[in-house]
Predict the 3D structure of the following.
Amino acid sequence: MASVITRYISDIEALEKVQKRATKILPSLRHISYPDRLKVCKLTTLHYRQIRGDMMEVYKILSGKYDSEITPTLIISDIHKTRGNDLRL
């Protein structure tokens, strides 16, 4: 299992490296830091996009967009402090 996780992490690092290189293509951005290049290009990090995608999938599962027989069982918490949202895992 460790090799699978290592391969996954290396894939993530490779994708992030491609994004870093792509943002350096523009001559005016070449000497700016990576986070600043992302802001100028209106891009987000790969990590942020992964978390956002995970949150969208959880929403779809909880709202019944997928067949309940093939989705994982998520237990909704009975704690009611959710800052305006009635769903908490």
